[in-house]
Write the structure tokens for this entry.
Amino acid sequence: MAGEEVRAAFEAEGITVVTGARMTAARRVGDGGPVTATVADGREFTGDEILVAVGRRPATAGIGLECVGLEPGRPVPVDGQLRAAGVDGGWLYAIGDCNGLAPLTHMGKYHGRIAAAAILGQEVADSASHTIVPRVTFTDPQICAVGRTEADARAAGLHVTAVTTPTGGVPGAYTQGNGISGTSQLVIDDDRRTMVGATFTGPGVQELLHSATVAICGGVTVDRLWHAVPSFPTVSEVWLHLLEAYGL
């Protein structure tokens, strides 16, 4: 859903989107000239520059992890309190990108709060890094999501229903301009009647994300959410439309 909407927006701007193609060669014509990339099926694409984005990996080499029995250059395995696993004395904590759990700035800040509380002797545990990670992709349209996708939920053995509604289909969207598009989706665990995931696409939808994060984190049932009245006219009325699509 989200990927196809971004593809359509890119193509409307004249951007060619090619997926599933492995680049096999690249060459530049002269000094400062255009760059041509060749993909496995022989096609060539020419542009001013090539930007290579191949993901991230923890920068854990060269800091002495081998001295405490950990493997340099690899994510540091941690327990629920972000304490490095297998280190004698349990004195080492690994927060943020270096533990590989959820390499996002806001999750690193969350890890810091968990680790600090644990060091101070409080009974805390990380309950967000595996199933309640909020993420925003600042494309146009924006994509934001939290929790599980429908496919992830089904793969985990959950009995879920996914409901969608147009993000621009509420009066509040018209206050932001003409032609507001996008899709809002909830993934609902039918057995527990709680949300396990949410995705929103459209302009400025990142501000819808935290309410979904709160609902998932708090285990709020859809029956209770039906009584969370969205203000009029706001884009948050998509919540009402989504719950109605679920049958409430």
Residues 105-119 form the longest helix (15 residues). The chain has a mean pLDDT of 93.
